[in-house]
Amino acid sequence: MIKGIYHAARSLETQNKNLERIANNLANLNTIGYKREGMFIHILNQVGSPQIKSPVDLTQGEVFETKNPLDLAIVGVGLFVVKTDKGYELIRNGNFQISPEGFLVDKEGRKVIGKNGEINLSEYKLNENNMVSISRNGEIKVGENSVDTLLIAKLDEDRYEFRKEGLNFDSISDIEELADENEYQILQGYLEESNVNPIQEMENMIRVSKDYESSYKMVITLDESLQKSIEVGKI
Questions:
Q1: Percent of the chain scoring above 70 in pLDDT
Q2: Which of 66, 135, 172, 219 sits in a 20 to 30 Å window from 75, CA-based?
Q3: Which parts of 124-163 fold into alpha helices (H)?
Q4: Which whole number is the average pLDDT over 88-100?
Q5: Backbone phi, then psi, for 152, in 5-degree steps?
Q6: 100-122, pLDDT tens digit by residue?
Q7: What CA–CA distance (Å, rounded) separates 72 from 136?
Q8: How many CA atoms are closer than 13 Å to the CA of 13, on its beta-carbon side?
Q9: pLDDT digit string, tens, across residues 27-52
Q10: Pair 106, 81: CB distance under 8 Å
Q11: What whole-number distance in Å separates Cα of residue 106 and Cα of residue 97?
């Protein structure tokens, strides 16, 4: 009976985390490049011990045109690399701009990294006849001048899950894998929408809420039965 209470309580904990995941997915419905977090599941790790895992849905989000030449969408595998105070971070959001110092940065001011390092456009005069163009493989040009090529990193599902919690790399060499050029395309003037499906999330919320309610009722029932057993034992 105590074992039954334990398993029901574990189920309550898991369903509560799943509700948090669903709420987070819905909150990021309009977040550029956001990848949906899946429900928590129980699996056995390499040594046979149980653990909870939450997979990340890496399917492609819809892309939409902005006509902003600094908006970039990755179609296929890969993530942009930006430099933060804690190291290098991998992101899918390609909503970039040029800083006052001439660096290509994201909306948080983090510098975008190319194959030659931080991308700086300050030495180039930008005008109608000297525009920024970015090719499908990520090569950045100003007019006919080649500036750099975007560094596109690659993460598997397990590593992507850790990235959700703020995975940082101390140096570029710490990034284990770069995406091959045939695995992705860069679309200039486009952004990638979140891949969250609100209808699916609402359906998940209803199902998880029912599972939570069932587990809660089971805990109450088993607890009452245990109390009655204890009282009988005292007689």
A1: 72
A2: 172
A3: 157-163
A4: 93
A5: -115, 115
A6: 999 999 999 999 999 999 999 98
A7: 10
A8: 10
A9: 999 999 999 988 876 544 444 455 56
A10: no
A11: 6
